[in-house]
Design brief:
Length: about 400
Protein backbone atom coordinates (compact mmCIF):
# COMPACT_ATOMS: atom_id res chain seq x y z
CA UNK A 1 0.00 0.00 0.00
CA UNK A 2 1.29 3.45 -0.93
CA UNK A 3 2.03 5.64 2.08
CA UNK A 4 -0.09 8.82 2.25
CA UNK A 5 3.02 11.07 2.23
CA UNK A 6 4.01 9.62 -1.15
CA UNK A 7 0.73 10.60 -2.75
CA UNK A 8 0.44 13.74 -4.83
CA UNK A 9 -2.12 16.31 -3.64
CA UNK A 10 -4.50 15.49 -6.50
CA UNK A 11 -4.45 11.84 -5.40
CA UNK A 12 -5.23 12.79 -1.79
CA UNK A 13 -8.08 14.94 -3.09
CA UNK A 14 -9.33 12.09 -5.27
CA UNK A 15 -9.54 9.61 -2.39
CA UNK A 16 -11.22 12.15 -0.12
CA UNK A 17 -13.73 13.07 -2.83
CA UNK A 18 -14.35 9.40 -3.63
CA UNK A 19 -15.61 9.03 -0.07
CA UNK A 20 -17.64 12.23 -0.42
CA UNK A 21 -19.15 11.03 -3.71
CA UNK A 22 -20.00 7.66 -2.15
CA UNK A 23 -21.74 9.32 0.80
CA UNK A 24 -23.64 11.67 -1.51
CA UNK A 25 -24.68 8.93 -3.94
CA UNK A 26 -25.82 6.61 -1.17
CA UNK A 27 -27.66 9.29 0.78
CA UNK A 28 -29.43 10.87 -2.20
CA UNK A 29 -30.66 7.51 -3.53
CA UNK A 30 -31.57 6.07 -0.14
CA UNK A 31 -35.10 7.49 -0.03
CA UNK A 32 -36.06 7.17 -3.71
CA UNK A 33 -37.58 3.64 -3.77
CA UNK A 34 -40.10 4.35 -0.99
CA UNK A 35 -40.70 8.09 -1.56
CA UNK A 36 -44.27 7.42 -2.82
CA UNK A 37 -44.94 5.25 0.25
CA UNK A 38 -43.74 8.10 2.49
CA UNK A 39 -46.02 10.52 0.63
CA UNK A 40 -48.92 8.14 1.28
CA UNK A 41 -48.35 8.44 5.05
CA UNK A 42 -48.67 12.24 4.92
CA UNK A 43 -52.38 12.27 4.04
CA UNK A 44 -55.32 10.35 2.65
CA UNK A 45 -54.90 10.81 -1.09
CA UNK A 46 -56.79 9.23 -3.99
CA UNK A 47 -54.61 7.34 -6.47
CA UNK A 48 -54.26 10.19 -8.99
CA UNK A 49 -53.30 12.67 -6.26
CA UNK A 50 -50.81 10.26 -4.66
CA UNK A 51 -48.98 9.65 -7.97
CA UNK A 52 -48.98 13.40 -8.73
CA UNK A 53 -47.45 14.31 -5.36
CA UNK A 54 -44.92 11.47 -5.67
CA UNK A 55 -43.89 12.80 -9.08
CA UNK A 56 -43.55 16.35 -7.73
CA UNK A 57 -41.54 15.16 -4.73
CA UNK A 58 -39.14 13.28 -6.96
CA UNK A 59 -38.74 15.78 -9.80
CA UNK A 60 -38.67 19.00 -7.73
CA UNK A 61 -35.04 18.33 -6.78
CA UNK A 62 -34.02 18.16 -10.45
CA UNK A 63 -36.11 21.22 -11.36
CA UNK A 64 -34.26 23.50 -8.95
CA UNK A 65 -30.97 21.84 -9.88
CA UNK A 66 -31.51 22.66 -13.57
CA UNK A 67 -32.26 26.31 -12.73
CA UNK A 68 -29.55 26.98 -10.17
CA UNK A 69 -26.60 24.89 -11.47
CA UNK A 70 -25.37 27.50 -14.01
CA UNK A 71 -25.30 30.14 -11.26
CA UNK A 72 -23.25 27.91 -8.95
CA UNK A 73 -20.95 27.16 -11.91
CA UNK A 74 -20.19 30.85 -12.40
CA UNK A 75 -19.59 31.29 -8.68
CA UNK A 76 -17.22 28.30 -8.69
CA UNK A 77 -15.09 30.06 -11.33
CA UNK A 78 -14.63 32.93 -8.87
CA UNK A 79 -14.32 31.15 -5.52
CA UNK A 80 -13.08 27.65 -6.38
CA UNK A 81 -14.60 24.17 -6.25
CA UNK A 82 -13.95 23.44 -2.56
CA UNK A 83 -16.30 26.18 -1.29
CA UNK A 84 -18.95 24.82 -3.68
CA UNK A 85 -18.39 21.29 -2.35
CA UNK A 86 -18.86 22.52 1.23
CA UNK A 87 -21.89 24.57 0.20
CA UNK A 88 -23.47 21.47 -1.35
CA UNK A 89 -22.64 19.04 1.48
CA UNK A 90 -23.70 21.39 4.29
CA UNK A 91 -26.84 22.43 2.40
CA UNK A 92 -27.86 18.81 1.85
CA UNK A 93 -27.08 17.97 5.49
CA UNK A 94 -29.67 20.52 6.60
CA UNK A 95 -32.34 19.85 3.95
CA UNK A 96 -32.11 16.04 4.17
CA UNK A 97 -32.43 16.09 7.96
CA UNK A 98 -35.37 18.50 7.88
CA UNK A 99 -37.08 16.34 5.24
CA UNK A 100 -37.23 13.55 7.80
CA UNK A 101 -39.38 15.85 9.97
CA UNK A 102 -41.89 16.62 7.16
CA UNK A 103 -45.42 16.87 8.50
CA UNK A 104 -47.24 17.29 5.17
CA UNK A 105 -46.65 16.63 1.48
CA UNK A 106 -45.98 20.29 0.59
CA UNK A 107 -43.28 20.55 3.24
CA UNK A 108 -41.69 17.43 1.72
CA UNK A 109 -41.85 18.83 -1.84
CA UNK A 110 -40.56 22.24 -0.70
CA UNK A 111 -37.57 20.77 1.14
CA UNK A 112 -36.66 18.58 -1.83
CA UNK A 113 -36.87 21.67 -4.05
CA UNK A 114 -34.43 23.46 -1.72
CA UNK A 115 -32.22 20.36 -1.62
CA UNK A 116 -31.88 20.49 -5.42
CA UNK A 117 -30.83 24.13 -5.24
CA UNK A 118 -27.97 23.19 -2.89
CA UNK A 119 -26.95 20.00 -4.70
CA UNK A 120 -23.97 19.60 -7.03
CA UNK A 121 -21.40 17.86 -4.82
CA UNK A 122 -20.58 15.11 -7.32
CA UNK A 123 -20.35 17.52 -10.29
CA UNK A 124 -17.98 19.83 -8.40
CA UNK A 125 -15.89 16.88 -7.20
CA UNK A 126 -15.48 15.72 -10.81
CA UNK A 127 -14.61 19.26 -11.93
CA UNK A 128 -12.02 19.73 -9.18
CA UNK A 129 -10.18 16.49 -10.00
CA UNK A 130 -10.45 17.06 -13.76
CA UNK A 131 -8.77 20.45 -13.32
CA UNK A 132 -5.88 19.04 -11.23
CA UNK A 133 -5.08 15.55 -12.48
CA UNK A 134 -2.15 15.15 -14.92
CA UNK A 135 -3.41 14.35 -18.42
CA UNK A 136 -1.78 10.90 -18.46
CA UNK A 137 -3.76 9.90 -15.34
CA UNK A 138 -7.09 11.61 -16.16
CA UNK A 139 -8.95 8.55 -17.45
CA UNK A 140 -8.10 6.38 -14.46
CA UNK A 141 -8.71 9.20 -11.97
CA UNK A 142 -12.13 10.10 -13.36
CA UNK A 143 -13.09 6.45 -13.59
CA UNK A 144 -12.08 5.86 -9.98
CA UNK A 145 -14.02 8.91 -8.81
CA UNK A 146 -17.11 7.76 -10.71
CA UNK A 147 -17.14 4.41 -8.91
CA UNK A 148 -17.67 6.27 -5.63
CA UNK A 149 -20.94 7.86 -6.76
CA UNK A 150 -22.16 4.76 -8.63
CA UNK A 151 -21.32 2.48 -5.71
CA UNK A 152 -23.26 4.74 -3.36
CA UNK A 153 -26.22 4.89 -5.74
CA UNK A 154 -26.34 1.08 -5.85
CA UNK A 155 -26.12 0.54 -2.09
CA UNK A 156 -28.40 3.46 -1.18
CA UNK A 157 -31.76 2.09 -2.42
CA UNK A 158 -31.19 -1.39 -0.97
CA UNK A 159 -29.94 -0.15 2.41
CA UNK A 160 -32.57 2.61 2.54
CA UNK A 161 -35.34 0.17 1.68
CA UNK A 162 -34.24 -2.23 4.41
CA UNK A 163 -34.02 0.56 7.01
CA UNK A 164 -37.39 2.03 5.97
CA UNK A 165 -39.06 -1.37 6.13
CA UNK A 166 -37.70 -2.04 9.61
CA UNK A 167 -37.73 1.39 11.28
CA UNK A 168 -39.97 3.68 9.21
CA UNK A 169 -39.67 5.99 6.22
CA UNK A 170 -38.20 8.96 8.07
CA UNK A 171 -35.00 7.27 9.32
CA UNK A 172 -33.21 7.11 5.91
CA UNK A 173 -33.51 10.90 5.60
CA UNK A 174 -31.71 11.29 8.92
CA UNK A 175 -29.03 8.83 7.76
CA UNK A 176 -28.70 10.88 4.55
CA UNK A 177 -28.09 13.95 6.69
CA UNK A 178 -25.48 12.07 8.71
CA UNK A 179 -23.70 10.90 5.55
CA UNK A 180 -23.51 14.49 4.31
CA UNK A 181 -21.91 15.49 7.63
CA UNK A 182 -19.23 12.90 6.84
CA UNK A 183 -18.88 14.33 3.32
CA UNK A 184 -18.53 17.84 4.77
CA UNK A 185 -15.80 16.82 7.22
CA UNK A 186 -13.90 14.79 4.63
CA UNK A 187 -14.03 17.71 2.20
CA UNK A 188 -13.02 20.33 4.76
CA UNK A 189 -10.07 18.39 6.19
CA UNK A 190 -9.11 16.15 3.25
CA UNK A 191 -9.31 18.41 0.20
CA UNK A 192 -6.74 21.06 -0.60
CA UNK A 193 -7.40 23.08 -3.74
CA UNK A 194 -4.81 25.11 -5.62
CA UNK A 195 -7.36 27.49 -7.10
CA UNK A 196 -6.74 30.11 -9.75
CA UNK A 197 -9.79 32.29 -10.53
CA UNK A 198 -11.10 32.14 -14.07
CA UNK A 199 -11.09 35.56 -15.67
CA UNK A 200 -14.40 36.68 -17.12
CA UNK A 201 -14.27 36.96 -20.88
CA UNK A 202 -16.60 37.85 -23.67
CA UNK A 203 -18.14 35.33 -25.99
CA UNK A 204 -19.01 32.82 -23.29
CA UNK A 205 -22.70 32.58 -24.15
CA UNK A 206 -24.50 29.59 -25.56
CA UNK A 207 -24.11 30.70 -29.19
CA UNK A 208 -20.34 31.12 -28.75
CA UNK A 209 -20.06 27.57 -27.38
CA UNK A 210 -21.21 26.19 -30.75
CA UNK A 211 -18.61 28.10 -32.76
CA UNK A 212 -16.21 25.59 -34.30
CA UNK A 213 -18.63 22.65 -34.09
CA UNK A 214 -19.01 21.27 -37.60
CA UNK A 215 -21.89 18.88 -36.90
CA UNK A 216 -24.16 21.02 -34.74
CA UNK A 217 -27.19 18.85 -35.53
CA UNK A 218 -25.40 15.82 -34.04
CA UNK A 219 -24.65 17.70 -30.81
CA UNK A 220 -28.24 18.93 -30.53
CA UNK A 221 -29.49 15.40 -31.17
CA UNK A 222 -27.31 14.22 -28.27
CA UNK A 223 -28.80 16.96 -26.03
CA UNK A 224 -32.31 15.77 -26.87
CA UNK A 225 -31.25 12.14 -26.55
CA UNK A 226 -29.77 12.77 -23.09
CA UNK A 227 -33.01 14.45 -22.02
CA UNK A 228 -35.18 11.59 -23.31
CA UNK A 229 -32.89 8.92 -21.81
CA UNK A 230 -33.20 10.54 -18.38
CA UNK A 231 -36.96 10.97 -18.83
CA UNK A 232 -37.37 7.29 -19.72
CA UNK A 233 -34.99 6.01 -17.04
CA UNK A 234 -36.49 8.09 -14.22
CA UNK A 235 -40.15 7.79 -15.24
CA UNK A 236 -40.69 4.70 -13.09
CA UNK A 237 -39.19 6.22 -9.92
CA UNK A 238 -42.35 7.97 -8.63
CA UNK A 239 -44.43 4.80 -8.98
CA UNK A 240 -41.96 1.95 -8.51
CA UNK A 241 -42.81 1.22 -4.87
CA UNK A 242 -46.53 1.59 -5.56
CA UNK A 243 -46.31 -0.84 -8.49
CA UNK A 244 -44.19 -3.29 -6.45
CA UNK A 245 -46.75 -3.09 -3.64
CA UNK A 246 -49.47 -3.90 -6.19
CA UNK A 247 -47.51 -6.89 -7.53
CA UNK A 248 -46.84 -8.13 -3.98
CA UNK A 249 -50.51 -7.56 -3.03
CA UNK A 250 -49.39 -5.40 -0.11
CA UNK A 251 -47.58 -8.28 1.62
CA UNK A 252 -43.89 -8.48 2.62
CA UNK A 253 -41.22 -5.78 2.94
CA UNK A 254 -42.30 -3.60 0.03
CA UNK A 255 -39.71 -0.89 0.72
CA UNK A 256 -36.79 -3.34 0.65
CA UNK A 257 -37.97 -5.12 -2.51
CA UNK A 258 -38.53 -1.73 -4.16
CA UNK A 259 -34.95 -0.79 -3.27
CA UNK A 260 -33.60 -3.95 -4.90
CA UNK A 261 -35.69 -3.42 -8.04
CA UNK A 262 -34.52 0.22 -8.17
CA UNK A 263 -30.85 -0.78 -7.82
CA UNK A 264 -30.78 -3.57 -10.43
CA UNK A 265 -30.33 -1.31 -13.50
CA UNK A 266 -27.40 0.44 -11.82
CA UNK A 267 -25.71 -2.88 -11.08
CA UNK A 268 -26.06 -3.92 -14.73
CA UNK A 269 -24.81 -0.54 -15.95
CA UNK A 270 -21.75 -0.78 -13.70
CA UNK A 271 -20.95 -4.25 -15.06
CA UNK A 272 -21.51 -3.41 -18.73
CA UNK A 273 -20.44 0.23 -19.16
CA UNK A 274 -16.70 -0.28 -19.70
CA UNK A 275 -17.18 -3.19 -22.12
CA UNK A 276 -19.74 -1.32 -24.18
CA UNK A 277 -17.42 1.70 -24.17
CA UNK A 278 -14.66 -0.48 -25.62
CA UNK A 279 -17.14 -1.86 -28.15
CA UNK A 280 -18.05 1.65 -29.30
CA UNK A 281 -14.34 2.32 -29.91
CA UNK A 282 -14.23 -0.69 -32.25
CA UNK A 283 -17.54 -0.57 -34.14
CA UNK A 284 -18.48 3.10 -33.67
CA UNK A 285 -20.58 5.00 -31.13
CA UNK A 286 -23.51 5.34 -33.57
CA UNK A 287 -24.11 1.58 -33.78
CA UNK A 288 -23.88 1.12 -30.01
CA UNK A 289 -26.25 4.04 -29.35
CA UNK A 290 -28.86 2.83 -31.85
CA UNK A 291 -28.62 -0.74 -30.53
CA UNK A 292 -29.03 0.49 -26.94
CA UNK A 293 -32.14 2.47 -27.82
CA UNK A 294 -33.66 -0.45 -29.70
CA UNK A 295 -32.94 -2.78 -26.77
CA UNK A 296 -34.52 -0.30 -24.33
CA UNK A 297 -37.74 -0.22 -26.35
CA UNK A 298 -37.85 -4.02 -26.51
CA UNK A 299 -37.42 -4.23 -22.72
CA UNK A 300 -39.78 -1.47 -21.58
CA UNK A 301 -42.74 -2.70 -23.64
CA UNK A 302 -43.11 -6.16 -21.98
CA UNK A 303 -43.04 -4.51 -18.54
CA UNK A 304 -46.65 -3.56 -19.28
CA UNK A 305 -47.56 -7.27 -19.01
CA UNK A 306 -45.49 -8.08 -15.89
CA UNK A 307 -47.27 -10.07 -13.19
CA UNK A 308 -44.44 -10.77 -10.70
CA UNK A 309 -41.68 -8.75 -9.05
CA UNK A 310 -39.08 -11.26 -10.24
CA UNK A 311 -39.88 -10.69 -13.92
CA UNK A 312 -39.92 -6.92 -13.35
CA UNK A 313 -36.49 -7.15 -11.71
CA UNK A 314 -35.03 -9.24 -14.56
CA UNK A 315 -36.31 -6.81 -17.20
CA UNK A 316 -34.97 -3.81 -15.26
CA UNK A 317 -31.57 -5.50 -14.96
CA UNK A 318 -31.37 -5.78 -18.75
CA UNK A 319 -32.56 -2.16 -19.06
CA UNK A 320 -29.42 -1.30 -17.09
CA UNK A 321 -27.31 -2.97 -19.78
CA UNK A 322 -29.12 -0.87 -22.41
CA UNK A 323 -28.51 2.24 -20.29
CA UNK A 324 -24.79 1.48 -20.35
CA UNK A 325 -24.95 1.86 -24.13
CA UNK A 326 -26.79 5.19 -23.94
CA UNK A 327 -25.61 7.99 -21.66
CA UNK A 328 -21.84 7.30 -21.83
CA UNK A 329 -22.06 6.95 -25.62
CA UNK A 330 -23.97 10.22 -26.09
CA UNK A 331 -21.20 11.94 -24.12
CA UNK A 332 -18.58 10.26 -26.31
CA UNK A 333 -20.37 11.45 -29.45
CA UNK A 334 -20.49 15.01 -28.10
CA UNK A 335 -16.79 15.02 -27.18
CA UNK A 336 -15.86 13.72 -30.64
CA UNK A 337 -17.85 16.51 -32.31
CA UNK A 338 -16.84 19.41 -30.02
CA UNK A 339 -13.56 21.40 -30.09
CA UNK A 340 -11.56 21.30 -26.80
CA UNK A 341 -12.23 24.94 -25.89
CA UNK A 342 -16.02 24.35 -25.90
CA UNK A 343 -16.23 20.89 -24.30
CA UNK A 344 -16.91 22.08 -20.72
CA UNK A 345 -19.71 24.43 -21.80
CA UNK A 346 -21.31 21.87 -24.11
CA UNK A 347 -21.25 19.28 -21.34
CA UNK A 348 -22.79 21.77 -18.89
CA UNK A 349 -25.67 22.36 -21.30
CA UNK A 350 -26.04 18.61 -21.64
CA UNK A 351 -26.33 18.34 -17.84
CA UNK A 352 -29.16 20.87 -17.96
CA UNK A 353 -30.98 18.77 -20.56
CA UNK A 354 -30.50 15.70 -18.36
CA UNK A 355 -32.02 17.53 -15.40
CA UNK A 356 -34.97 18.63 -17.54
CA UNK A 357 -35.49 15.00 -18.54
CA UNK A 358 -35.43 14.00 -14.87
CA UNK A 359 -38.29 16.48 -14.32
CA UNK A 360 -40.38 15.65 -17.40
CA UNK A 361 -40.23 11.84 -17.08
CA UNK A 362 -41.52 11.49 -13.50
CA UNK A 363 -44.23 14.15 -14.00
CA UNK A 364 -45.49 12.49 -17.20
CA UNK A 365 -45.41 9.11 -15.47
CA UNK A 366 -47.34 10.45 -12.48
CA UNK A 367 -50.01 11.85 -14.78
CA UNK A 368 -50.31 8.63 -16.79
CA UNK A 369 -50.38 6.43 -13.66
CA UNK A 370 -52.93 8.67 -11.96
CA UNK A 371 -55.30 8.81 -14.92
CA UNK A 372 -54.86 5.24 -16.23
CA UNK A 373 -52.73 2.71 -14.35
CA UNK A 374 -49.13 2.08 -13.28
CA UNK A 375 -48.63 -0.30 -16.22
CA UNK A 376 -49.30 2.40 -18.80
CA UNK A 377 -46.15 4.18 -17.61
CA UNK A 378 -44.13 1.50 -19.41
CA UNK A 379 -46.01 2.15 -22.64
CA UNK A 380 -45.27 5.86 -22.26
CA UNK A 381 -41.60 5.07 -21.64
CA UNK A 382 -41.50 2.87 -24.75
CA UNK A 383 -42.89 5.80 -26.75
CA UNK A 384 -40.16 8.11 -25.37
CA UNK A 385 -37.50 5.60 -26.42
CA UNK A 386 -38.98 5.34 -29.94
CA UNK A 387 -39.00 9.14 -30.26
CA UNK A 388 -35.38 9.16 -29.11
CA UNK A 389 -34.49 6.49 -31.68
CA UNK A 390 -36.14 8.60 -34.39
CA UNK A 391 -34.19 11.73 -33.37
CA UNK A 392 -30.84 9.91 -33.48
CA UNK A 393 -31.60 8.24 -36.84
CA UNK A 394 -32.65 11.63 -38.28
CA UNK A 395 -29.44 13.31 -37.04
CA UNK A 396 -27.18 10.70 -38.56
CA UNK A 397 -29.23 10.67 -41.79
CA UNK A 398 -28.62 14.45 -42.04
CA UNK A 399 -24.91 13.75 -41.73
CA UNK A 400 -24.82 11.73 -44.96
Amino acid sequence: MVHTKQLAQWQKNMYALWLGNFATGAGASMSLPFLPLFVATLGHFPKWELTLYAGLAFSSTFLSQAIVSPLWGKLADRTGRKPMLLRASIGMTITATLTGFSTNVWMLIGLRLIQGAFSGYINNANALIASEVPRQHSGKAMGTLTTGAVGGQLIGPIFGGAIAGAFGYRIPFFIFGGLMVVASLVTFFGVKENFKPVKAAGGQGMRAAFVGIKKVHIVWAMFISSMLIQAATNSINPIISLFVRQLMHGRGNVAFVSGVVAALPGIATLLAASRLGQLSDHIGAQKVLLSGLALSGLLFFPMYFVQTVVVLGVLRFFVGIADAALMPVTQTVMSLNTPPQAVSRIFSYNQSFQAIGSVIGPLLASGVAGILDYRYVFLMTTLLVLINLGVVIWAYHQDR
